[in-house]
Amino acid sequence: MQFTAAQIAMLINGQVEGNASATVDSFGKIEEAKSNQLAFLANPKYEEYLYSTKAAVIIVNETQELKEPVSAALIRVPDAYSAFATLLHKYQEIMRQQLSGIQEPSFIHKTAVLGENVFVAAFSYIGEKVQVGNNVKIYPGVFLGDNVKIGENSILLPGVKIYHDCVIGKNVTIHAGTVIGGDGFGFAPQPDGSYKKVPQIGNVVVEDFVEIGSNSCIDRATIGSTIIRSGAKLDNLLQIAHNVEVGNNTVIAAQAGISGSTKVGNNVQIGGQAGIVGHIQIADGTRINAQSGVSKSIKTPNSAVTGSPAFEYTSALRSQAVSRNLPDLEKRVLELEKLVQQLMQERVII
Amino acid sequence: MQFTAAQIAMLINGQVEGNASATVDSFGKIEEAKSNQLAFLANPKYEEYLYSTKAAVIIVNETQELKEPVSAALIRVPDAYSAFATLLHKYQEIMRQQLSGIQEPSFIHKTAVLGENVFVAAFSYIGEKVQVGNNVKIYPGVFLGDNVKIGENSILLPGVKIYHDCVIGKNVTIHAGTVIGGDGFGFAPQPDGSYKKVPQIGNVVVEDFVEIGSNSCIDRATIGSTIIRSGAKLDNLLQIAHNVEVGNNTVIAAQAGISGSTKVGNNVQIGGQAGIVGHIQIADGTRINAQSGVSKSIKTPNSAVTGSPAFEYTSALRSQAVSRNLPDLEKRVLELEKLVQQLMQERVII
Amino acid sequence: MQFTAAQIAMLINGQVEGNASATVDSFGKIEEAKSNQLAFLANPKYEEYLYSTKAAVIIVNETQELKEPVSAALIRVPDAYSAFATLLHKYQEIMRQQLSGIQEPSFIHKTAVLGENVFVAAFSYIGEKVQVGNNVKIYPGVFLGDNVKIGENSILLPGVKIYHDCVIGKNVTIHAGTVIGGDGFGFAPQPDGSYKKVPQIGNVVVEDFVEIGSNSCIDRATIGSTIIRSGAKLDNLLQIAHNVEVGNNTVIAAQAGISGSTKVGNNVQIGGQAGIVGHIQIADGTRINAQSGVSKSIKTPNSAVTGSPAFEYTSALRSQAVSRNLPDLEKRVLELEKLVQQLMQERVII
């Protein structure tokens, strides 16, 4: 899609300076933008690029002074960075609204109910009694098992698989390849050393405004629900086991894993590749460092931990610092042993 | 599907007490069940919910005494928990038997051979000379490469991809998005710093009664087979590299990884996010703690290890305990140094 | 496909000894090959199998002496191992050339441009203005978003998803389930504790001769490009975050993760399950051990690190060695304290 400088200025309430009919069709960094792109200048550090950039349109702060002539059309706004962010949101909204209708071939069970302005791409599969809310966008190769519910404005990127009976809220985005509702990992050991499957008959509930990255796994509960609370943001390649609860506005970075039945509080931050054992509680506002291994409940809100096993952040860092110099510490102990032995031999017993 | 209390009692050899025609269509925990659900009471801790639950039907121990009137229909059995588990298995069996036939559009090569009562969902792809056993259930978007064999009663959930020549046993379940038979990671370094691919011409053999979670990867062997032995249970997001062997009834938790050519024995337990280097052996019955990094063979059966690099469990825990107090230990050494220095200066040489 | 010993000898410039019309249709290890297979003998350790193998054709060194009669047809070449590798490459080339044409049903937007001898399998989705180079092979269930470019000779295995605007070079192989161009994980914290999505409008550029394993994730840049440089080899289940750059001929083992905006140099080796924080630089030739956690830039080329947090390899190993004996070290300190206390009490003040 192409936009003129004048159209963009209207979207973000800015003033055009220069060629109002200059057109752009994509976005670029000011230092590497091409002649069909729009850029912005917010950080004075990059001002030199204002005079050399190939961008056709640039959003600048209204206070921006020009030391040289500028070939691009300028759009002046009170705050260039936030105007640019606003523009991106509006642009993505416009792009998404264009996705609509049912592409063929797709498989939509006759008992499924689809809302208004829904997009169902080719090769998507919508099972029995599925409910899809208004404005939901379903990309190619998505699988929705029987009885799944998808709330309005949600977006399912290519190849997302949602097993039967799971419930997805409104304004949720789930990226490509993520699996919601696979069986929890439950097997009962038998006397002969084999394992018997424990049926996993619960579901997964993902509340509103959640975003989940690519190729993540959120397993269904054994009974009841695995729950991702409203506003949580989950990255790629996550493992969320059965019956876990993730609190509101909690953020989990890529490749982290949470074992079964653990309850993670609100506004928690979990670093990449961190692991949390099962059946524990993580207090609100906890910060868990990348690669940590959390092996017991964290009860004090807003604490920070690191290491595997994980401990309180500051003291763990202190231990790590000593740990690095262990060979030196051992040498000091050896030296002491020699001196003390010498002293023991030389001592005068009174 | 709906069942009456009478029908359920018949399936699990129980006695109905109350309304034998009460109907349910799903399962719930006794403390949160809805009026269309069946629950069970096995743990006396939850007895209070027997009198307040909305569940329409409850399975209880035959010895269960009632302190108050119960509105739900009761089904009395010798052991409520195991009767409930049995019921779930039968229910899932019934549900699965209903899946049958070929949905369109699907792609089935004319040389492929399908057994009796097979289900092939829409958008599934079955390549040349593929053999699919009786009662196999293939969900949407599954890919079976040329010459793949799937044993009877196996279930391939949505988006499972099995590369050419791989062999899957009987009664195997593979969850959504898992990739079986991708190329092993083999590249020969060249004098100019680049890498030349080593062709990966082996396959993967998954034996009977194996279950594999979602979005896991099991790579094909360079030559020969990567093998998952009978009864092994593998969780989500696992990496099993080329030429690995995983023994009978071995259990591997999510996000663990096993490097090339390593042989893991029988009845081994591997915790989440653990890693095992290549070309080593892990003895039968070994227990590897979550996040461990196993860097050499474990030869003693039934041993337990933890840490990265991993060591014997008890002594590793002891080291970790001291490690936590390292700053304190360093302080003690510093104190000793001062005292010894003082003693050295004060000593009386005889 | 079947080949005779004579045909194979011609492909690798060898001399047939025995039945030149013996046929094979696959490859096996000499110790376990079947009667329809070709094997090779390069390592003298395996010579005994030359006389007992069931393989119909065996590639051997031209200097190989026979101590017993051999039933298989032999093909003599100067170097059996490299002739075998050459044969595999030619075989895979032949197999791949056979893949051609458009299978139905597939979805190819009318504005997409496909080169010569392209294969598009059933259930693949090719969006608006996509450009697909000559000889590209697209397996079932692949998704190519709008404006994606795929360079010639590249191979996209089943279920690969490439989001809009991403660019894939020539001779690239991407294995099943991998997601290229999912949104970077960028969310701005709001005063009320919630997060606001930062639009991710960049793309991913994968240069020539790159191979990427199964179920990996490479996120698109916030602005600009996430870049995988020519010749890099990436394993399964990797996380490559937004705006990361991976250098030429860099090798990354399974389950490793690289956080946002980090620049990894050329010829770097990253072990399995290693993690690298965001916004740092890794010098050319760095070797990062498996499970390491790299928390700051590595500026010296060709250095090696291990541990979490990661340090210089040799000194980290030394610290780990002492760490293992910490309980012993603590005991020695305790013993010293007792002796020093005794000495302090017994000392003679002059």
From TrEMBL, chains A, B, C:
<feature type="domain" description="UDP-3-O-[3-hydroxymyristoyl] glucosamine N-acyltransferase non-repeat region">
    <location>
        <begin position="23"/>
        <end position="89"/>
    </location>
</feature>
<dbReference type="GO" id="GO:0103118">
    <property type="term" value="F:UDP-3-O-[(3R)-3-hydroxyacyl]-glucosamine N-acyltransferase activity"/>
</dbReference>
<dbReference type="GO" id="GO:0016410">
    <property type="term" value="F:N-acyltransferase activity"/>
</dbReference>
<keyword id="KW-0677">Repeat</keyword>
<dbReference type="GO" id="GO:0009245">
    <property type="term" value="P:lipid A biosynthetic process"/>
</dbReference>
<keyword id="KW-0808">Transferase</keyword>
<dbReference type="InterPro" id="IPR018357">
    <property type="entry name" value="Hexapep_transf_CS"/>
</dbReference>
<comment type="similarity">
    <text>Belongs to the transferase hexapeptide repeat family. LpxD subfamily.</text>
</comment>
<dbReference type="Pfam" id="PF00132">
    <property type="entry name" value="Hexapep"/>
</dbReference>
<comment type="subunit">
    <text>Homotrimer.</text>
</comment>
<comment type="pathway">
    <text>Bacterial outer membrane biogenesis; LPS lipid A biosynthesis.</text>
</comment>
<comment type="function">
    <text>Catalyzes the N-acylation of UDP-3-O-acylglucosamine using 3-hydroxyacyl-ACP as the acyl donor. Is involved in the biosynthesis of lipid A, a phosphorylated glycolipid that anchors the lipopolysaccharide to the outer membrane of the cell.</text>
</comment>
<dbReference type="Pfam" id="PF04613">
    <property type="entry name" value="LpxD"/>
</dbReference>
<dbReference type="InterPro" id="IPR007691">
    <property type="entry name" value="LpxD"/>
</dbReference>
<protein>
    <recommendedName>
        <fullName>UDP-3-O-acylglucosamine N-acyltransferase</fullName>
        <ecNumber>2.3.1.191</ecNumber>
    </recommendedName>
</protein>
<dbReference type="GO" id="GO:0016020">
    <property type="term" value="C:membrane"/>
</dbReference>
<feature type="active site" description="Proton acceptor">
    <location>
        <position position="242"/>
    </location>
</feature>
<keyword id="KW-0443">Lipid metabolism</keyword>
<dbReference type="InterPro" id="IPR020573">
    <property type="entry name" value="UDP_GlcNAc_AcTrfase_non-rep"/>
</dbReference>
<keyword id="KW-0444">Lipid biosynthesis</keyword>
<keyword id="KW-0441">Lipid A biosynthesis</keyword>
<keyword id="KW-0012">Acyltransferase</keyword>
<dbReference type="InterPro" id="IPR001451">
    <property type="entry name" value="Hexapep"/>
</dbReference>
<dbReference type="InterPro" id="IPR011004">
    <property type="entry name" value="Trimer_LpxA-like_sf"/>
</dbReference>
